[in-house]
Amino acid sequence: MSNISNTHERAGGNLTAQALREGLFAGLVALGLFVLFVGLETTQNIRNELVLNQRWGLLAIFVIVAAVGRFLSVAYLRPWAAARKAAAAAKPVEGEESFFKRNFSKIAIVALIFYPPIMVMLFGVQGSLKWVDNFGIQILIYVMLAWGLNIVVGLAGLLDLGYVAFYAVGAYSYALLSQQFGFSFWILLPLAGILAAFWGMILGFPVLRLKGDYLAIVTLAFGEIIRLVLINWTEVTRGTFGVSGIPKASVFGIWSFDVSAPNNFAKAFDLPMSSAYYKIFLFYLILALALLTAYVTIRLRRMPIGRAWEALREDEIACRSLGINTVTTKLTAFSIGAMFGGFAGSFFAVRQGFVSPESFVFLESAIILAIVVLGGMGSLVGIAVAAAVMVGGTELLREMTFLKQIFGPDFTPELYRMLIFGLAMVTVMVWKPRGFVGSREPTAFLRERKAVSGSFTKEGHG
Amino acid sequence: MALGANTVATNTMTNDPILTVEHLSMRFGGLMAINDLSFEAQRGEITALIGPNGAGKTTVFNCVTGFYKPTMGMITMRQKAGKEFLLERMTDFEITRDAKVARTFQNIRLFSGLTVLENLLVAQHNMLMKASGYTILGLLGFPTYKKASAESIEIAKHWLEKAHLIERADDPAGDLPYGAQRRLEIARAMCTGPEFLCLDEPAAGLNPRESLALNELLRSIRKDSGTSILLIEHDMSVVMEISDHVVVLEYGQKISDGTPDHVKNDPKVIAAYLGVEDDEVEEVIEEIEVIAESEGTEGGSH
């Protein structure tokens, strides 16, 4: 008995000693790192002389934070995490998931349908604008784009860094065709999708033989080419000035949202004039488009073509040995993914009323890809959650005015959006390397539908 | 007319080759991996391709299944219905889809993230593609696809039962033990509905019990579905047990061809496998020549 308690105590003592040691070491490393960066500051005084300021206090704070943080992490956080892991392993696996977890997607759809009226009730017609437009529509656009890219990257395993090109094709298709020919949104929406799909195929052909990194580089270049064409082909696209005054969409031509039109929506229902109705209409429009994307993706996964995409991601050579034409399989993945990008693009044009090449920079592609990876490649729910967290989170930063009280009035939180974005990505990738939803749902089953663990699925090689 | 005469002639000789390889050569740069190889695989038989490491067996396979384009030679596949395909002119997926030649791989290539059942459904891609009207009709919910989909699951079930994998149907393929993965790969190849099945070392890495089960599976494939089999194998217990016809390769050339018993006692084969001491080389060559002469007078080895 005494022996056991002895060893236990010794282990505890060892741990504290080790934590102290590591804390001290971390403090030393921090001192070495920051002594020149933080401890000394050079400024110019009024006579243009170089002055060396000493900031030992700040340096001390840096060193103490590092040392104490390391100490706490080793002494308390790690044993606690280990104990929790052991407890979780010891606990028997729960057979039934909670009602909320099982019906998450249905609940989420219902919540989204009731989102605009609730916002109107809470914040008034004008006040709801921000919540419906900045949050609702913005997030749903990214959800739709990420779901579209998911077909290419998540299902077929083709790493596409130029997805925003198709978004641009869709947006400019609507902007230019509606201005030049006066076609309505409902004609141009499918047309934009078809044009984007066509460009998807054009991209697909030259990259068929490429895999992995090489494919990524070529798709990235393709995205840049489209952007540069939009900038430089000024006769058609008006270059960096962009296309403005893009006509609004109407409710299937029955009600218009133009202020001067006789069938104006607000007038027809005797409501006070507000742009909020148009935004709410747009919210439902993008919700419908996103749900269409999800529905088609779910249906396609159960079709032979969807299974062939996933098989292609797993092993291309095996696919060919089973008589699958990998050329057409890849092209369909590219073009269907691009088609949804085109839909989203034409919606973007209608929502902004203005498109310029500025909106289609590489960063957009990177964000969409990051959402797909964070959500868990192939998982629709995970991707939607990731889009809400990533896009909604960065939007939420704009709201955090209280941060100004902490960091001073010069602090603008939205400038740190990308920093937070990066931090969140690193955190999620450490915590869940396969994304929020790492497992995949099988498309067919004999007895029971068991999720396939992420450790078996592959990311694709091209 | 000529074709008719030809079939009559083959029937009278009870010689009905499903695969004819003629003067096949494959060169990689300066290396002649296969040098003027000719052999035949008979319909309904199990033909084994054996030889020491690096003899070019897998290269032959890759030529037959279209993964390599041969430098020279002709590979003819004759289907039961009489249709002929020149495999050296077709690409890999067309060979499986149109000529009905399926293959497995030396290092197993399963879709590890897909379930066992899904693996078998992917193999029926072309049939399901047609039934779903190239996805469009299926997407719109036409009944033809639903029917074909149910059928494809039945086919998959049939092969799962044969391969003793029915219990693991809903598990990811990557989760199966090695022997089961081998059987699954064969079952998957069979789901493409092949007339000719090429197996690249199906017994590699299997324990004796598993390789016994494999023998059983291969025999039942030949018996029940009438599929002819060409296999590469190092495990002689499998080769001698199940094959009807053995072709021996060494350095890209055929050194022996015949029944398992004939091949087993062929001094050339023994020399290729075991090697001979330097002072015995002359002796062995003489012996080989004598045998070759006697065979010449007998009129072929087969």
From TrEMBL, chain A:
<feature type="transmembrane region" description="Helical">
    <location>
        <begin position="56"/>
        <end position="77"/>
    </location>
</feature>
<dbReference type="InterPro" id="IPR001851">
    <property type="entry name" value="ABC_transp_permease"/>
</dbReference>
<dbReference type="Pfam" id="PF11862">
    <property type="entry name" value="DUF3382"/>
</dbReference>
<feature type="domain" description="High-affinity branched-chain amino acid transport system permease LivHM N-terminal">
    <location>
        <begin position="18"/>
        <end position="115"/>
    </location>
</feature>
<protein>
    <submittedName>
        <fullName>General L-amino acid ABC transporter membrane protein</fullName>
    </submittedName>
</protein>
<dbReference type="InterPro" id="IPR043428">
    <property type="entry name" value="LivM-like"/>
</dbReference>
<keyword id="KW-1003">Cell membrane</keyword>
<feature type="transmembrane region" description="Helical">
    <location>
        <begin position="240"/>
        <end position="257"/>
    </location>
</feature>
<feature type="transmembrane region" description="Helical">
    <location>
        <begin position="181"/>
        <end position="202"/>
    </location>
</feature>
<feature type="transmembrane region" description="Helical">
    <location>
        <begin position="20"/>
        <end position="40"/>
    </location>
</feature>
<feature type="transmembrane region" description="Helical">
    <location>
        <begin position="214"/>
        <end position="233"/>
    </location>
</feature>
<dbReference type="Pfam" id="PF02653">
    <property type="entry name" value="BPD_transp_2"/>
</dbReference>
<keyword id="KW-0812">Transmembrane</keyword>
<feature type="transmembrane region" description="Helical">
    <location>
        <begin position="107"/>
        <end position="127"/>
    </location>
</feature>
<dbReference type="InterPro" id="IPR021807">
    <property type="entry name" value="LivHM_N"/>
</dbReference>
<keyword id="KW-0472">Membrane</keyword>
<keyword id="KW-1133">Transmembrane helix</keyword>
<dbReference type="GO" id="GO:0005886">
    <property type="term" value="C:plasma membrane"/>
</dbReference>
<feature type="transmembrane region" description="Helical">
    <location>
        <begin position="331"/>
        <end position="354"/>
    </location>
</feature>
<dbReference type="GO" id="GO:0015658">
    <property type="term" value="F:branched-chain amino acid transmembrane transporter activity"/>
</dbReference>
<feature type="transmembrane region" description="Helical">
    <location>
        <begin position="277"/>
        <end position="298"/>
    </location>
</feature>
<feature type="transmembrane region" description="Helical">
    <location>
        <begin position="366"/>
        <end position="394"/>
    </location>
</feature>
From TrEMBL, chain B:
<dbReference type="Pfam" id="PF12399">
    <property type="entry name" value="BCA_ABC_TP_C"/>
</dbReference>
<dbReference type="InterPro" id="IPR003593">
    <property type="entry name" value="AAA+_ATPase"/>
</dbReference>
<dbReference type="GO" id="GO:0005886">
    <property type="term" value="C:plasma membrane"/>
</dbReference>
<dbReference type="GO" id="GO:0005304">
    <property type="term" value="F:L-valine transmembrane transporter activity"/>
</dbReference>
<dbReference type="InterPro" id="IPR027417">
    <property type="entry name" value="P-loop_NTPase"/>
</dbReference>
<dbReference type="GO" id="GO:0016887">
    <property type="term" value="F:ATP hydrolysis activity"/>
</dbReference>
<keyword id="KW-0029">Amino-acid transport</keyword>
<dbReference type="GO" id="GO:0015192">
    <property type="term" value="F:L-phenylalanine transmembrane transporter activity"/>
</dbReference>
<dbReference type="InterPro" id="IPR032823">
    <property type="entry name" value="BCA_ABC_TP_C"/>
</dbReference>
<dbReference type="GO" id="GO:0015808">
    <property type="term" value="P:L-alanine transport"/>
</dbReference>
<protein>
    <submittedName>
        <fullName>General L-amino acid ABC transporter ATP-binding protein</fullName>
    </submittedName>
</protein>
<keyword id="KW-0547">Nucleotide-binding</keyword>
<dbReference type="InterPro" id="IPR003439">
    <property type="entry name" value="ABC_transporter-like_ATP-bd"/>
</dbReference>
<keyword id="KW-0813">Transport</keyword>
<dbReference type="GO" id="GO:1903805">
    <property type="term" value="P:L-valine import across plasma membrane"/>
</dbReference>
<dbReference type="GO" id="GO:0042941">
    <property type="term" value="P:D-alanine transmembrane transport"/>
</dbReference>
<dbReference type="Pfam" id="PF00005">
    <property type="entry name" value="ABC_tran"/>
</dbReference>
<dbReference type="GO" id="GO:0005524">
    <property type="term" value="F:ATP binding"/>
</dbReference>
<feature type="domain" description="ABC transporter">
    <location>
        <begin position="19"/>
        <end position="276"/>
    </location>
</feature>
<keyword id="KW-0067">ATP-binding</keyword>
<dbReference type="GO" id="GO:1903806">
    <property type="term" value="P:L-isoleucine import across plasma membrane"/>
</dbReference>
<dbReference type="GO" id="GO:0015188">
    <property type="term" value="F:L-isoleucine transmembrane transporter activity"/>
</dbReference>
